[in-house]
């Protein structure tokens, strides 16, 4: 075993429904504006321009069910998403073979310091300060493909304190899951443990301390997160 000058960081592991084993996370890729209505509400054209991605850190994924309201922001938004978790990687993966690389799916939230993201956009700077802060991606239990198949349609809904805030359907994605995997593999060498957040429908908005967010998609375990 190699020795390190400091203790290596722990592997981020996510709970898998029906198993005591964890899913290890390597990287987290997030697609931007992948639902037409959300692209419109953010001021973009929803045509099928090439997709764009940003990254969160592996330890931003948080299955605890709590979301600590972050510092340096007064405008923190929810974005409800389906996460895609890979068991195999590679480069230049054909669309027709892309789903063979998927281990399973989960529900997640791409929490965003919208005010800081907006400032970064105006100055042409990266988004990490708005997107990749601690515990910025609450996530639910992973459901293996063997149990749920590959969800390509189904109602996605987010409530805040029991009121519907976001509602859409997985079939409304501009870029479907196989296309996302294939496109990413042209630019990065994907690997087992990579996670892709697949975009959010319209209706993003702010949360406050004490709010309770509940996310559901047909066939996947629901996700309940309290803002603390």
UniProtKB/TrEMBL annotation:
The keyword Hydrolase applies. Residues 28-227 form the Fumarylacetoacetase-like C-terminal domain. Transmembrane segments: none annotated. This is Fumarylpyruvate hydrolase. It comes from Primorskyibacter sedentarius. It comes from the Bacteria. Pfam families: FAA_hydrolase (PF01557). Keywords: Hydrolase, Metal-binding, Pyruvate. One of its GO terms (molecular function) is acetylpyruvate hydrolase activity.
